[in-house]
Design brief:
single chain, alpha+beta, SH3 type barrels, Alpha-Beta Plaits, 3 domains, five-stranded antiparallel sheet, four-stranded antiparallel sheet, 26% strand, WYL domain-containing transcriptional regulator
Length: 306
């Protein structure tokens, strides 16, 4: 049984009515050492749960359990099932997700059979053909040479990159990497990649926390050490819909004269402009002025049929 399967089962055991699990039980159930069982518990504690304090050791029962303050039962069951549903619908290897399902209790499998995750637009298979090479680079800790075309009108060029993070964003694959020539982080859309060569050189060490901070700092897939606040307003049905959504953890929102005002940090206006236009006349930009100007120019071009 893989660690992924063990993690799902450990979470289920912690969320069950008994709510306790021992290292001995984990080791015997999965035929692993108690040392590996301890590592699995530590992985759940530090990488899965919101806080390391959500798992405590009960000395009376001599078992691990969720703390009284932890988000219990429904939250983890719901999120585990949704995650599995997404995985099952995305996986091309049927055997892979069958193995994961077999690790679940019967009750969760019955619920999972009623969950279907669908997306209107998905990456072409061609977009995903580079994944195995990127995975190899991750595994071997190697740099890669990417032949990349930034836009349909530009010429392709070779980029010497340390691959850092693979992101599926709005059903398209992106590689976050450190570009050695530009000495900065860059985002590469896999559909624009023409070739990948795994380099002989080792990838350099990079600050993962700094990368996480940059990824979390602004709305969208575009990266930058700095971002600015974009403010938009929505009315009618758009206001009702957007008021029920979270666009970014650091967003600010308020109702003004029946309109919903939303402010989010972003390193680029590109995605926000596209999002805003999708609401038609029920949305408009407020600031910064450059965003308002860009919006008006785009609407003008659309009206003129260009």
């Amino acid at each position: 049984m893989s660690q992924t399967e063990r993690i799902f089962d450990i979470l289920y055991q912690l969320s069950s009515e008994e709510g306790c699990v021992t290292l001995k039980e984990i080791a015997e159930r999965y035929e692993i050492s108690t040392r590996q069982a301890a590592r699995d518990i530590e992985y759940v504690r530090t990488r899965i749960l919101p806080s390391p304090d959500d798992i405590v050791y009960d000395w009376q029962k001599r078992a691990y359990r969720l703390s009284e303050e932890a988000d219990t039962l429904s939250y983890w069951k719901e999120n585990m099932l949704i995650s599995l549903s997404i995985y099952n619908n995305a996986a091309s290897d049927a055997a892979a997700h069958l193995n994961l399902e077999e690790a679940l209790p019967d009750s969760m499998r019955r619920i999972l059979s009623h969950i279907d995750y669908r997306t209107p637009v998905r990456s072409r298979i061609d977009d995903e053909k580079w994944l195995s090479q990127i995975f190899t680079a991750f595994d071997k800790h190697r740099g890669i040479i990417i032949r990349y075309r930034k836009s349909p009108d530009s010429e392709s060029e070779d980029r010497d990159v340390d691959p850092l993070r693979l992101v599926n964003y709005q059903n398209a694959w992106y590689l976050i990497g450190y570009d050695l020539n530009r000495k900065d982080l860059r985002t590469f859309r896999l559909s624009r990649v023409e070739k990948i060569i795994i380099s002989d050189r080792k990838a350099y060490e990079h600050d993962e926390k700094n990368l996480d901070d940059i990824l979390d700092s602004s709305y969208g897939i575009f990266l930058s050490d700095s971002s600015e606040i974009f403010t938009m307003r929505f009315r009618g049905g758009a206001a009702v819909r957007v008021s029920s959504e979270i666009w970014h953890e650091k967003q600010r929102a308020r109702w003004i004269d029946g309109e919903y005002e939303l402010s989010v940090p972003s390193a680029s206006s590109v995605e926000l402009l596209s999002k805003l236009l999708s609401f038609g006349a029920d949305a408009y930009p407020v600031s910064p002025e450059s965003f308002v100007k860009e919006y008006r120019e785009t609407v003008k071009m659309m009206d003129s049929g260009r």
